[in-house]
Amino acid sequence: MSESTAPKNRLVAVCGKGGTGKTVFTAMMTKVLLDNGHGGKLLLIDADPAMGLPLALGVNVRRTMGQIREEIIKTARRGKQGESRQLVDKLDYMVFEALVEMDNFALLAMGRTETLGCYCPVNNLMRGAIETLSHSFDTILIDGEAGLEQINRQVMGHVDTLIIISDATSRGLQTAAQIKGMVQSERVIQCDKLGLVFNRVQGNEELLKQSAQEMGLDVFGYIPQDENIAYYDLVGKPIIELPTSPGLAAVRNIVEKSIFNERFS
């Protein structure tokens, strides 16, 4: 890739109502970027405690950021300042240790946290370490849990593009509108570009577009119901190995025309 076409650092986050297919969409977007090479050096962050993205990508995760967070909190509770200082000094190394590096992308899983309560200093430390790590990559894709809080609290406070995934239901649209309101009020996360992707669509594109427009939501595109994707998801085959299919073609169109369009001009 020549210097003139090399991608700039880009952060893209995927969010939405639970069960709408955020993880599968993130995996397919990963495949598109790997196939066309326009993502450059690619980092994937699984910010959903359910940790579905490693399975969708066929990646084995041995250590999560949640486990690192627990280690820091337990050490701090023991009250030994020397131990705590050592962990803070090692934090960047610990983040790199949790990074799973494949041939053409890297994956960092947030995982679950067992310790309840607010530990803002620890969360801020981890977010700073992740932001430092992100500078080593051209494109960062974040697969978020339902809502936006975890992306902001533990991963990134600002993203370039926020993609809301919705199914073709009024509930999905209402959740998308709520997320848009949270972003506009800057209570949760800042983003430069926000758009909606409808998943598992079976017609009614014009009605969906009209409904989105009434809520002030831009539509990036529509992904049709795809039996190939449903089969891969059911049997646990990595989505990244998905052959050509209508759903993948739709994601490719969304990526190239609405999300990374300036890189394809």
Q: pLDDT under 50 segments (min length 5)?
A: 1-7
Biggest sheet: strands, sense, closure?
A: 8 strands, mixed
User: How many E-type strands?
Assistant: 8
Supply the CATH architecture.
3-Layer(aba) Sandwich
Could you name the CATH class? Answer: Alpha Beta
Total number of helical segments? 10
Write down the overall mean pLDDT: 84
SS-based structural class?
Answer: alpha/beta
- Main sheet strand line-up: 3-4-2-5-1-6-7-8
Instruction: Please name the fourth-level CATH homologous superfamily.
Output: P-loop containing nucleotide triphosphate hydrolases
Taking the alpha carbons of the first and last residues, their distance comes to 15 Å
SSE run: EHEHHHEEHEHEHEHEHH
Provide the gyration radius in Å. Answer: 19 Å
As a percent range, the share of strand residues is 15-25%
Tally of distinct domains: 1
Summary, kept brief:
The chain is of the alpha/beta class and 265 residues long. It contains 10 helices and 8 strands. Residues 1-7 have low confidence and may be disordered.
Describe the structure.
With 265 residues, the protein is α/β, with parallel strands linked by helices. It has a single domain (7-260), classed as P-loop containing nucleotide triphosphate hydrolases (Rossmann fold), CATH 3.40.50.300. 46% of the residues lie in helices and 19% in strands. The chain is built from ten helices and eight strands. The protein has an eight-stranded mixed sheet, with helices on both faces. The longest helix is centred in the middle third of the chain and has 18 residues, at 81-98. The model is unreliable at 1-7 (pLDDT under 50).
